[in-house]
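YhfH family protein, pasting as requested.
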Amino acid sequence: MLQNPLEFFRQLPQKECAECGEMIEEQAESYLMECDHCLSKRDE
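Structure tokens follow.
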């Protein structure tokens, strides 16, 4: 039985930052693996 594509995406777990483990508020077509806080520390 095929699953509705929208339901598939709703059931995906929330992405977490690979650096600190915080949950990432994802944007459409975002491939980032770190949160904004960890990314800003990298730029310093």
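Note for the archive: The first helix runs from residue 5 to 10.
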